[in-house]
Amino acid sequence: MVNRQINVIQYGLGPIGASIVRLMLQKPELRIVGAIDVDPAKAGKDLGLVAGVGRELGVIVSSDAEKVLRGGADVVVHTTGSWLESVADQLLACVTARTHVVSTCEELSYPFRKHPQLSQSLDRCAAANGVAMLGTGVNPGFVMDKLVLTLSAVCRRVDSANATRIVDASKRRLPLQKKIGAGMTVEEFERQVAAGVIKHHGLPESVAMVADGLGFTLDEITETIQPMVASRDVKTEFLEVAAGQAAGVHQVAHGLHQGRPLVSLELRMYVGATNPGDTVELVGDPDISMTVPGGTHGDIATAAVAVNCIPAILEAKPGLRTSRDIPMHYYAGASAPEVVHPASC
Amino acid sequence: MVNRQINVIQYGLGPIGASIVRLMLQKPELRIVGAIDVDPAKAGKDLGLVAGVGRELGVIVSSDAEKVLRGGADVVVHTTGSWLESVADQLLACVTARTHVVSTCEELSYPFRKHPQLSQSLDRCAAANGVAMLGTGVNPGFVMDKLVLTLSAVCRRVDSANATRIVDASKRRLPLQKKIGAGMTVEEFERQVAAGVIKHHGLPESVAMVADGLGFTLDEITETIQPMVASRDVKTEFLEVAAGQAAGVHQVAHGLHQGRPLVSLELRMYVGATNPGDTVELVGDPDISMTVPGGTHGDIATAAVAVNCIPAILEAKPGLRTSRDIPMHYYAGASAPEVVHPASC
Question: Is residue A78 in a domain?
Fold first, then answer.
């Protein structure tokens, strides 16, 4: 892999961005050379204090993205938002500055179906600047797409793919518990869904990635969001959910061909989940399934996947890449032996 | 991925090669343009008859590899042997003919540690000819290395990696049951191990791939082969094992650093196994594990992985590649949408 110092700019210092900063500090080859956040409470302060490192890092958070990007880096880790249209200008600025991009923007994970024109623009701009761009994370980006596709390698034929992710939100941060509607009445939950406030982003993107990877032609991708209703009182560190209230989301996406679901992804994220875990089931020749008992931790795993992809994105073909294209594994921050010696034979 | 006819030569028509031929016939884009086997019982016959297709394919199996390779193809699927030194000339002939290679040679899956010089020669020759070479299969190549590494993407830190594969050999072909010593006395089993006859190939290769992928420095890779002794009489379609006789192999490989195992792979392949399955366990931050209930079927999965890698190898960087480098998933034989349009932005 990579045998040199990798200069990184962190773009976005919410909980995930801060978590990524702390993780990057564990990798000796990664050097954080810049940090961007528009929040006046963060800009102008030392990155170490903003990201909860517990010490100063000598990098001042700036709200002037253009200036930081002009300073140059190998890669930008981008964690500012879930909607591709609202972050597209940020992404274009990064690749125009000739930096590779690893982003946790959910809609960037597989944007071709929902944003065909924008996907093409991002791809062209990245390719023209000789850099690669990747949207990734744990979901979308890993458990419900990359892992599904990877398992499919042992199949002679795949007829349909299912993945289920059950997350116990009890131990997760308060903003997440609120985001999934925990403690709301069912009526309030439904109003918040209708208003677009309650929504896990990325299931349709994962459906599309899996379908394309498996060679399925989809007519339509459907998505529903229902409340998981608490059957008993649940108390977390942050809030209480009474029986009959919403405990979280039950979100299901299907990729349909002639009305038949070829890809089905089901997310149950709620406080008090008793059987958390990630499950993949492939129906085909042969059938095969896989379980991750307890499941992957959302925030931790998203930060890990983003950081672990940094060496891979540096070696990827320029343009807009996806988790499907990228060989993913842990990045120790110490280089694996380089064995490639192109020469004459 | 690939949007055109892919011309393939099948090199080796043992059980795995024949299984690969039958699978390739299910992929409309793959066209088998040549077949090589030195066995006089196969050479000169139609490939369809040799490979158990049940009909003629209009491709005559030839023992003259050079001649077949001279005919040209995009990729050779190579399935002639487990020892790299004994098949290296075949592999060099393939890349010299400018064909990509997907091989099930176990020692090719990660040959850098055991065969550093030969690895370099193969890499250089492939790169010089602008083609890629890959050794893969289910084990080595997938369950005990690729899958381990893929799961590690969600970890912030990995301290050690373990994989266990339990295979019920009762339903497998007779040569495999014999190869693992089923029905031998323990003494005979141990003689056959000492003679190098009983041995699953590839555990040290998987250990090395996992260690390099996770950034571990190994001082040593150890490997032991013990009999699984039958605790009761077992009868398969092909043979009988009495209680007290060997029912199969229990093979363990460790990657050690200062005497401590950082990678541990355990294979139990025997007739009458009651709890078959593949398990991966990563110790780190966080710990994570994964189970494939029932496990992946060895022969089927090796054929599937080899065929599924064909589109990926055509797009890989020239030279000697490994499962670690290659994004792996099922190949439908129908092309996924091409979304890359390198152009100016």
Answer: yes
Q: Are residues B70 and B13 in the same domain?
A: yes
ipTM computed for the complex: 0.94
What is Dmax (Cα atoms) for chain B?
72
pLDDT 10s digits, A180-234: 999 999 999 999 999 999 999 999 999 999 999 999 999 999 999 999 999 999 9
Q: Is any Cβ of chain B less than 8 angstroms from the Cβ of A231?
A: no
A129, A213, A339: residue with CB nearest B119: A339
Q: Clarify whether residues A124 and A53 are in a common domain.
A: yes
Q: Is residue B224 part of a domain?
A: yes
At CA B92, angle to CA B89 and CA B98, rounded to 5? Answer: 150
Q: What is the pTM of this model?
A: 0.95
Which of B20, B98, B154 best probes binding to A when mutated, by most A CB atoms within 10 angstroms? B154
Instruction: Take residue B74 and report the two structure tokens written for it.
Output: 């995009």
Residue A92 lies in a domain: yes
Residue count (chain A):
345
* Alpha-carbon distance A188 to nearest alpha carbon in chain B (angstroms): 34
Q: Which of A150, A215, A335 sits opposite B150 (nearest CB)?
A: A150
Contacts of B139 in chain A (CB under 8 A): none
B310 shares a domain with B185: no
* pLDDT at residue number B333: 81
Partner residue opposite B319 with nearest CB, options A154, A317, A340: A340
**A286 vs chain B: nearest CA distance in angstroms?**
8
Which domain does A315 fall in, by range? 6-137+301-321
Say if residue B340's pLDDT is above 80: no
In this structure, the answer to whether residues B126 and B150 fall within a common structural domain is no
The tally of domains found in chain A comes to 2
**In the prediction, which pLDDT does A82 show?**
95
Assign residue B119 the CATH number of its domain.
3.40.50.720
Q: Does one domain contain both B201 and B228? A: yes
Helix (H, G, I), strand (E, B) or coil at B287: coil
Q: Do B345 and A154 touch (CB under 8 A)?
A: no
Contacts of A23 in chain B (CB under 8 A): 156
Same domain, A266 and A185: yes
* Residue B327: DSSP 8-state: -
Can you list the residues of chain A whose pLDDT is less than 70?
Answer: 1-3, 334-345
Q: Does A292 touch chain B (CB under 8 A)?
A: yes
Measured CA distances, B157 to A26, A134, A136, A333 (Å): 9, 22, 18, 10
Q: Can you give the CATH number for the domain in which B228 is found?
A: 3.30.360
Residue spans of beta strands (DSSP E) within chain A: 6-11, 30-36, 61-62, 75-78, 100-103, 132-135, 157-168, 220-229, 234-235, 240-241, 246-257, 260-270, 277-285, 288-293, 319-321
